[in-house]
Amino acid sequence: MEIKRFILITTVFILGIISIFFVFSIKNHKEFIAPKIGVTIYPLYDVVKEIVGDKYEVVLIVPPGAEPHNYELKIEDVKKLRGIKIVFANGLGIDDWTENLIKNFKDVKIIYLYQSVDLIDQDPHFWLSLENMKKIAKIVEKEMENFDKKNREYYQENLDKVLEKIENLQTEAKQTVFSNKFIITQHNAFNYLAKELNLNVAGYLEGENKELTPADLSQLINKIKILNIKVIFKEPGEENNLLKTIAQEYNLKIYELDSIEGKSGLNYFDAYRKNIETLKFIQNE
Ligand SMILES: [Zn+2]
């Protein structure tokens, strides 16, 4: 009898300890969320991805091809951003909603890349400058080194590879002299590209989110006549009626220039190379 009682008491005691331990361990167990690195818009994604490599997941916040300007963070975005530690943002109005991230992710560090590049009139499309892209790559690498010191050599090697890719594009661009050529583009995105390739943006068919005024339009048409413009550039995946009408009216050939905002589906390097090739082709015509 005594032994049975002893066994019973011991069993109850052991079970009690086990259950207390169990409850305690559940309480202390936090779900592990892997740290992530964020990028606000498509044109910055590839460079960040190449530098971060396989060390962290890189999350692109605005889906490729979506309009970044008026983007609003959705519940799915907040979900996919769980664990976010650094966000590389463009700035200059194109991704102002980035500020809202801080409400949801208190310990996120936001790096505004516009602060580290050479700007033309506060134009946010600075990713179309290869010199700026090199600066961006260096900033991203520096941030990753600070964040994850043990992998600094890995990030440095990745940076070297990215810089080489960009320099190859610069070499390709230099092989053709695009001297003083006037271009008309669909939206006002190509000032940086034009500056580096010695082109002139004579005009564009839409402002950011707004249509041209009749005065703007007649000015543009005057330029087409005076500058004897022969080609006009549409953007990938866009059907622009005004562009087609003008092309027909003034006998302009339509080509495509990519502002690398994600609509072509090409990565940054391929999209830029395609732009150079298009411009070379036109030069030779
Ligand atoms: Zn744009």
Low-confidence stretches: none
Oligomer: single chain
Identify the CATH homologous superfamily of the largest domain.
Answer: Nitrogenase molybdenum iron protein domain
Secondary-structure content class: alpha/beta
- Could you tell me the CATH topology label of the largest domain: Rossmann fold
List ligands, each type once. Answer: zinc ion
As for the number of domains, it is 2
Adjacency order of strands in the biggest sheet: 2-1-3-4
* SS element count, helices: 10
Spell out the key features of this protein:
three-stranded mixed beta sheet; binds zinc ion; 10 helices; 2 domains; Rossmann fold; four-stranded parallel beta sheet; 285 residues; 9 strands; single chain; alpha/beta
Tell me about this structure.
The protein is an alpha/beta fold. It has two domains: 36-173, Rossmann fold, CATH 3.40.50.1980; 176-284, 3-Layer(aba) Sandwich (Rossmann fold). The protein has ten helices and nine strands. It has helices at 2-28, 42-52, 75-80, 101-104, 130-147, 152-174, 191-196, 214-226, 241-249, 268-284, and strands at residues 36-39, 57-60, 84-89, 109-112, 181-187, 199-207, 210-211, 231-234, 253-256. The strands form three sheets. The protein has a four-stranded parallel sheet with strand order 2-1-3-4, with helices on one face. Strands 5-6-7 form a three-stranded mixed sheet. Strand 8, helix 9 (241-249) and strand 9 form a beta-alpha-beta unit. Helix 2 (42-52) crosses helix 6 and helix 5 runs antiparallel to helix 6. The chain starts with a helix and ends with a helix. It binds zinc ion.
